[in-house]
Write a structure and sequence with these properties.
Blueprint: E1 2-14, E2 21-23, E3 45-46, E4 49-50, H1 51-58, E5 64-67, E6 91-93, E7 99-101, H2 107-117, E8 120-125, H3 132-143, H4 149-156, E9 167-170, H5 183-195, E10 207-214, H6 218-228, E11 242-249, H7 253-256, H8 265-292, E12 299-307, H9 326-341, E13 346-352, E14 362-365, E15 368-371, H10 373-380, E16 388-395, E17 399-402, E18 405-408, E19 410-416, E20 422-428, E21 435-441, E22 448-455, E23 473-475, E24 479-482, E25 485-490, E26 494-500
Parallel strand pairs: 1-21, 2-5, 2-13, 5-8, 8-9, 9-10, 10-11, 11-12, 12-13
Antiparallel strand pairs: 1-16, 3-4, 6-7, 14-15, 16-19, 17-18, 19-20, 20-26, 21-25, 22-23, 22-26, 24-25
Helix pairs in contact: 3-4, 5-6, 6-8, 8-9, 9-10
The structure holds alpha-L-arabinofuranose.
Alpha-L-arabinofuranose is lined by residues 25, 69-71, 172-173, 304, 352-353, 358.
């Protein structure tokens, strides 16, 4: 039996709500069809945004949304996406299927979407193929409140008031699709471009995201930070608020990837083992960041994470459409627990991607929409947003797996919100065995307020348009009170959330 010791007297850092962020790129059917159908669509919409999708996303309390990419960001020219839709330029989406992008979803539409979702805005700028002037004018267009060429243009396009840009990414994957740059070269470009990301609204400064590494590319992190911090003048302080990190779980590696739905027990454990690798990556990049930023003022922003499988048979390979099973629920549970545990450094993250692409929370087909197992995990974990991490640790946890692919049977994280309610999230990674967990708290008398679970006995269980509720969030009752806590039985393949006060 595993033991979970919780010290509710020892509050750690705040779990920033932005750790529960999402990502929407002009890729496949994420923006078009998945979110935006246009005002003339027969699918119910408000200003072109699908009502079913927006309503489902609002239940997740989405804190922040990143747009327009991804690789698309470094080919995106924002002026093509403003003004009357019939006049907007058409372009080839070279990264994603070579389809025509007609720019009917642009800056105004993104801001409208965020306003409907009630979330913060994270715009990713184009450093790879755009100019400093273009980036600077985009910021002016979105945020300047006064008389200026870009503010006037915004008003001419129907939006007099400026919007709030909360976060701004200065390029994306500039080590690869964003320009194939060397770290030192990117760092110098970052310094130059970010200078012109002006804070017109001084009460709400834009937080800047510097392009960080892919997976364990520590060479990139070292090179970027060394150059970025070389000869930094005092007025430069605050020039970097976040450094990004991208990590996708490919069960069979980048080339083969592996099926989203057809896998055996060994691949189950291999996949979860790879999800757990996030912990080592955060430690590794954070240790380098500590040399330049020992006070942890710069947040690590894992703004692309999730599973990336071989796309669904019969779909456009450039659209990255994949199904989502209870295995993905475990990936989400494991990863979010890791982020929570590292909330002293990880300050923002974005699951890739929100609808119809990679590890989505929603899938759509025509006017139908389904929630994936990952959706339900994000829903249960929403209570951690803005709460304080509590000291907690597991002991007597068995190591399980097949062959070389070993994982701990249970992972967890615990937080307390401003009303003193404790949220415990636990995962049982075993595909065959339940696990009893003895929860011990320092103080006695805690009462369970709510307990929920996402689980399925079949490791391949998924939701489809024919059977949309195979994997759901349901009430969890398998717990008993003990002297100093609770004894809980976690079924195989499960993600459990318990709230107590
Ligand atoms: O999310 C899909 C792609 O993965 C993004 O466009 C890119 O940034 C990453 O390589």
């Amino acid at each position: 039996m595993a033991k979970l010791i919780i010290n509710e007297e020892n509050r750690r850092d705040t779990i920033e709500p932005e750790i529960y962020g999402h990502f929407s790129e002009h890729l496949g059917r994420c923006i078009y069809e998945g979110i935006y159908v246009g005002e003339d669509s027969e699918i119910p919409n408000v200003k072109g945004m699908r009502v079913d999708v927006v309503e489902a996303l609002k239940e997740l309390k989405i804190p922040v949304l990143r747009w327009p990419g991804g690789c698309f960001a470094d080919e995106y020219h924002w002026k093509d996406g403003i003004g009357p839709k019939e006049n907007r330029k058409k372009m080839i989406n070279t990264h994603w299927g070579g389809v025509v992008e007609d720019n009917r979803f642009g800056t105004h539409e993104f801001m409208e979407l965020c306003s409907q979702l009630g979330c913060k805005t994270y715009i990713n700028g184009n450093l790879g193929s755009g100019t400093v002037q273009e980036m600077s004018e985009w910021v002016e267009y979105m945020t300047f409140n006064g008389v200026s060429p870009m503010a006037d243009l915004r008003e001419k396009n129907g939006h007099k008031d400026p919007w709030k840009v909360d976060f701004f990414g200065v390029g994306n994957e500039n080590w690869g699709c964003g320009g194939n740059m060397a770290p030192e070269h990117y760092a110098n470009e970052y310094r130059r471009y970010q200078t012109y990301v002006r804070n017109y609204d001084t009460d709400n400064p834009i937080k800047k995201v510097c392009c960080g590494a892919n997976v364990d590319d520590y060479h990139w992190t070292k090179g970027v930070l060394k150059t970025a911090f070389d000869h930094v003048l005092s007025e430069f302080h605050g020039f970097m608020d976040y450094l990004s990190l991208h990590y996708y779980v490919h069960p069979e590696g980048w080339e083969i990837k592996g099926s989203a739905t057809d896998f055996d027990e060994e691949v189950w454990y291999k996949t979860l083992n790879k999800a757990l690798h996030m912990d080592e990556l955060i430690r590794g990049h954070s240790a380098i960041m500590d040399q330049y930023d020992p006070e942890k003022k710069i947040g690590l922003c894992v703004d692309e994470w999730g599973s990336w499988y071989t796309c669904e048979p019969g779909t456009n390979p450039g659209f990255l459409y994949q199904q989502n099973t209870i295995r993905d629920a475990l990936i989400a549970g494991i990863t979010l627990n890791i982020f929570n545990k590292h909330c002293d450094r990880v300050k923002m993250a974005a699951l890739a991607q929100m609808v119809n692409v990679l590890q989505s929370v929603l899938l759509t087909e025509g006017d139908k929409m389904i929630k994936t197992p990952t959706y339900h995990v994000m829903h249960m974990y929403r209570y951690h947003q803005g709460s304080e991490l509590l000291e907690s640790a597991l002991s007597d946890v068995e190591e399980i797996g097949v062959g070389e692919w070993k994982v701990p049977k249970v992972t967890e994280s615990v937080s307390v919100d401003q009303d003193g309610i404790i949220t415990i999230t636990m995962n049982n990674l075993s595909v065959t065995e339940e696990e009893e967990v003895q929860i011990h708290l320092i103080n006695s008398g805690h009462e369970v307020k709510e307990a929920r679970i996402v689980t399925h006995t079949d490791m391949h269980a998924k939701n489809t348009f024919e059977e949309p509720e195979q994997v759901q969030e349901t009430d969890f009752n398998d717990y008993q009170k003990t002297g100093d806590g609770y004894q809980v039985t976690l079924p195989q393949n499960s993600v459990v959330m318990i709230r107590m006060s």
